[in-house]
Design a protein that fits this description.
The complex is a heterodimer of chains A (about 475) and B (about 450). Chain A is α/β, with parallel strands linked by helices. Chain A is about 25% helix and about 35% strand. Chain A has helices at about 1-15, 35-45, 50-65, 105-115, 140-145, 155-160, 165-170, 180-190, 430-435, 440-455, 455-460, 465-475, 480; strands at about 25-30, 90, 125-130, 135-140, 150-155, 195, 205-210, 225-230, 235-240, 250, 255-260, 265-270, 285-295, 300-305, 310-315, 320, 325-335, 340-345, 345-350, 355-365, 370-380, 385-395, 400-410, 415-425. A ten-stranded mixed sheet of chain A has the order 4-3-7-9-12-14-17-20-22-24. Chain A has a six-stranded parallel beta barrel with strand order 13-15-18-21-19-16. The relative contact order of chain A is 0.11. Chain B has a ten-stranded mixed sheet, with helices on one face. A nine-stranded mixed sheet of chain B has the order 3-4-6-8-10-12-14-16-18. Classes of the chains: A alpha/beta (about 475), B alpha/beta (about 450). The interface between A and B is large, with 36 and 36 residues. Strand 23 of chain A pairs antiparallel with strand 18 (about 365-375) of chain B.
Chain lengths: ~475, ~450
């Protein structure tokens, strides 16, 4: 058995990070460091209205009083926030109406990443916003979407053109005082995606953003805000990649979702930031605050995430179920290998009546990595008839990795119901033997079993991404499947 | 925030009071005495537990801090023998150990125990130790184990303040047939330090049923610490019944160290008291060790129960189970915080953990945290937690059979906890527990009738 699990490990270890290249571009970068001056300068460059600068400075003041959270099962040296570049943008002015104006180097980068922002790919039915370091560089399908009233643009643009919506909703789900990293983001965020779906509209396209960190030593602080008005629906996809540098880079994003009556947001992420090498050198520190508020009746927010990258992942996409009969869902696959550490999970806060939530979490740890599920299910006394079902399974590959499950269940009131179950296992000998005796190679068998283990989550991903996620898992087992 | 400042002041005073009291509590046995001195140091180093610590997150320490200043550190107290007769189970009448306000009382305990190959040593009697060199060795080795690294504030308090707890030791290859009953009485408004060390030799077998019985009408805190060592192949079963008054607070700390192929069963029944906090830690130190922890809490009014369980799998092929069930009504509150930790190399581990809760009222509250932390790959671990109310279909079924609603509710609730009650060793204790459970349910039911049906 020892040899078998060793061979699994070897296969896992031999795969390389496909997106580790850097693009040679001239960039405008701020010098390293964080201060009120830097924040004002970001706001100034973006030509922001007064209320945004106020919001940023308020957040910065709150941030100064906070300390880094230490409760997560993560081990990393303290981050020096003065050693981060807070703003970096490609130098050439990039217009967003025509792709001809986008720097061809950037287009090439996205081509390498396989992201359809080129004209020829317009038919694929996905509208993409591409974010390169700190700014949005390309946004497709904008006009077509605008015709039916959907706003899909970078958040800097939205601050200019739709200040009312921004003023109303920014910080309404994740307040600037929420936590250390959210406060930092509120102070220094440079760009991100803004989506507004008007009432009675089902967004005809999958909307998507691709995040790319390119500049060495820069941090990425993007902010996403999605608002879905009454009786509407949108499905949104997010992908992340970064070049392979020896030093750690910080990524601290904030995502806010708001659904009003009878509306639904489906938010999917495939996170494949650079994870560092096998000795744990380099890689992204991914500290993300994602939260959705089901403000309206019968509304629904569904998070699906596939977490395979980053040296450190600290991420808890949550749902505040405020409206009666609202639904929150969380589907997650987290794969850690080598020295990666992930502490991820969700929070389901039931406030409205008859609210329902489902949590399916699958953790796979290999190498010397550590993978933690941390989740909260909270039902207050107002939440009558609330239901939750949680399932979190862990799989361990090799004997040096760690899998932890840390659920918090806080329930008040007799009409609420919670079920939580979890199991931990390894790839069973019997399963492997069965597949192998059918003539399937050991490597393919392992890929097959892992794909089966994650099936419940992958089936929640939209078509395009489901294929990508499967590919990504196979990529992590590249030599074995190829 | 003035409140916080006040709280801190209270906490500081708490520690100072312990510091002052401890000097008069030091044992006359030198080895115990040195550890008590270390414990006093630990008390000041650790400080009063704060809410920011994960283990104390849901615990409200105000009742202790508020009432502590009216509490004394009690001397041994008189107790009427009639009361003992009332509380002992008939099966154990010849095997009785009694403590009053944390002090071990030889006079009230049965004398026949000595004939049964069990040694019982008073922690404050150096004369007795002179004739028991083996027991002296056990105390030296295991009493206040690693006190200099102790992380629990209340355990350190207990070590510093305890005056005469006892060692109960069963020699190798000895099986004690009868169940021993230990009665811990609290009859005054005191901060009691109950302490015992239980040691089982190789292949020894022992069953104990412990009751914490409050008689005082004023507030009291029972700070109990049990240290347990099971040698190779030993079997130990412990039933703990919490039978205090509404004024009582029980802080219970049990640390069990299990050697090769030993087997430990623990059953906690939380039936009364203002609030209780069970802090159970089991180290499975050698291959083949097995622990079975279960508990049942029935809470009404504004009572609270906290169960903090840590099972550490430190060797290969060990197994462990945790099963905790609770019924919570009125504005009561319960916490279940269970952990299974599997160390690197502990392959062949098989561990389960389950917490089930019935919430019977609108303000009842449960915080459940079933946790796993695993560092080995050849492991089978599962955990689960459920929160809900009585099944409407089940109630309807009973109603449709002509059973009155109150009776139906009582039957269903009792059958929910029967799984745990069945584990109790002694029959008369089982009946006693059922009666207390029904008392707590506060339904107008024909108690005897329902219990009869269930039997």
């Amino acid at each position: 058995m020892e040899t078998k699990s060793n061979s699994i490990l070897e296969n896992l270890n031999s795969q390389e990070y496909k997106y580790g290249f850097t693009t040679e571009l001239e960039t405008d970068s701020f010098p390293k460091g964080l201060s009120e001056e830097v924040i004002s300068k970001i706001s100034q460059i973006k030509n922001e209205p007064e209320f945004m600068l106020e919001f940023r400075l308020k957040a910065y003041k709150a941030f100064l009083k906070m300390s880094e959270p230490e409760w997560a099962l993560l081990n990393y040296p303290k981050i020096d926030l003065q050693d981060v570049i807070y703003y970096s943008a490609p130098k050439k002015k990039t217009g967003k109406d025509s792709l001809d104006e986008v720097d061809p180097e950037i287009l090439k980068t996205y081509e390498k990443l396989g992201i359809p922002i080129g004209e020829q790919k317009r038919l694929e039915g996905i509208a993409v916003d591409a974010i390169f370091d700190s700014v949005s560089v390309a946004n497709t399908h904008k006009k077509a979407l605008a015709e039916i009233g959907i706003i899909f643009c970078s958040i800097s643009e939205a601050i200019q053109e739709h200040p009312d919506l921004i003023k109303k909703y920014i910080g309404s789900v994740v307040p600037h005082t929420d936590n250390y990293f959210a406060a930092l983001n509120s102070a220094v965020f440079s760009d991100g995606t803004f989506i507004y779906i008007p009432a009675n509209t089902k967004c005809p396209l999958e909307l998507s953003t691709n995040f790319r960190i390119n500049t060495k030593g820069s941090g990425q602080f993007e902010r996403t805000l999605i608002i879905c008005d009454d009786n509407s629906y949108v499905s949104y996809l997010e992908g992340c990649t970064a070049p392979a540098f020896d030093e750690n880079q910080l990524h601290a994003a904030v995502v806010e979702l708001v659904t009003l009556d009878n509306s639904e947001i489906k938010y999917s992420t495939v996170q494949n930031w650079y994870a560092g090498d096998e000795n744990g050198k380099g890689g992204i520190y991914n500290f993300v605050t994602k939260r959705g508020k089901c403000a309206g009746k019968n509304s629904k927010i569904s998070w699906t995430q596939v977490e395979t990258g980053s040296a450190i992942t600290w991420k808890y996409p949550s749902c505040i179920l405020l409206g009666d009969n609202s639904i929150g869902e969380f589907y997650s696959v987290a794969l850690t290998n080598n020295m990666q550490q992930a502490d991820t999970g969700t929070k389901m806060i039931h406030i409205g009546k008859n609210t329902k939530s489902t949590i399916i979490s699958k953790g796979i740890s290999a190498g010397k990595s550590s993978n933690t599920y941390r989740g909260l299910v909270k039902m207050g006394e107002r939440a009558k008839g609330a239901r939750n079902y949680t399932q979190c399974d862990s799989m361990l590959i090799g004997s040096h990795c760690r899998a932890s499950t840390v659920p918090y269940i806080e329930v008040e009131g007799n009409s609420n119901r919670v079920e939580h179950e979890a199991s931990t296992s390894k790839i069973s000998e019997e399963q492997l033997f069965y597949l192998q005796q059918r003539g399937i190679s050991l490597e393919s068998a392992i890929a097959l079993i892992i794909s089966g283990f994650c099936k419940d989550v992958f089936k929640e991903l939209p078509g395009e991404f489901a294929a990508e996620a499967n590919q990504l898992m196979s990529l992590k087992l590249e030599n074995s499947v190829g | 925030m003035p409140n916080l400042a006040e709280r801190n002041k209270n906490e500081i005073e708490f520690i100072e009071q312990i510091f002052r009291a401890s000097s008069s509590m030091l044992s006359r046995i030198p080895n115990i005495r040195t550890r008590q001195e270390t414990a006093i140091k630990r008390v000041t180093e650790l400080g009063f537990p704060q809410k920011s610590s994960e283990d104390w997150k849901y615990y409200d320490s105000q009742p202790i801090l508020e009432n502590f200043f009216t509490l004394d550190i009690c001397e041994i107290n008189k107790l009427d023998k009639e009361i003992i007769r009332k509380h002992r189970f008939p099966e154990c009448s010849e095997n009785l150990l009694v403590t009053v306000n944390g002090h071990f009382s030889k006079e009230l305990s049965s004398t026949s125990l000595a004939n049964k190959n069990i040694s019982i040593i008073d922690f404050n009697d150096p004369e007795q130790l002179k004739t028991h060199p083996q027991e002296e060795e056990i105390i030296n080795q295991y009493f206040a184990y690693k006190i200099n690294q102790e992380k629990s504030f209340f355990k350190a308090c207990n070590t510093a303040l305890m005056s005469n707890g006892f060692l109960l030791s069963v020699p190798d290859d000895t099986e004690i047939q009868e169940t021993i009953q230990i009665l811990h009485f609290s009859n005054e408004s005191c901060f009691n330090q109950t302490r015992s060390l239980i040691h089982l030799g190789k292949n020894a077998k022992l069953k104990i049923i412990v009751s914490y019985i409050g008689l005082a009408n004023n507030h009291f805190v029972n700070n109990a610490v049990v240290e347990l060592i099971l040698s190779e192949g030993a079997y130990f079963k412990l039933d703990k019944i919490q039978d205090d008054t509404q004024q009582g607070i029980l802080l219970y700390d049990l640390y069990a160290r299990l050697m090769k192929n030993s087997n430990f069963e623990y059953n906690s029944l939380d039936l009364k008291a203002n609030h209780s906090r069970d802090n159970i830690k089991v180290d499975l130190l050698e291959p083949g060790a097995h622990s079975d922890l279960s508990g049942f809490y029935i809470l009404n009014k504004d009572r609270k129960a906290h169960n903090i369980i840590k099972v550490n799998h430190l060797a290969p092929n060990c197994t462990s189970n945790q099963l905790y069930k609770g019924i919570i009504s009125d504005s009561a509150r319960a916490e279940f915080n269970g952990e299974i930790n599997v160390s690197e190399g502990a392959n062949g581990t098989n561990a389960t953990q389950l917490n089930k809760n019935l919430l019977l009222s609108h303000n009842a509250h449960i915080d459940s945290r079933p946790q796993l932390s695993i560092l080995a790959d050849d492991v089978k671990c599962s955990h689960g937690s459920t929160v809900g109310e009585l099944d409407e279909d089940e109630i309807f079924y009973l109603l449709s059979r002509g059973i009155k609603k109150d009776d139906a509710l009582a039957m269903l609730t009792l059958s929910f906890c029967e799984e745990i009650i069945q584990k109790v060793t002694i029959d008369s204790a089982k009946q006693h527990i059922r009666n207390l459970t029904l008392e707590n349910l506060d339904t107008k039911i024909h108690t005897a009738n329902t219990v009869h049906k269930l039997k």
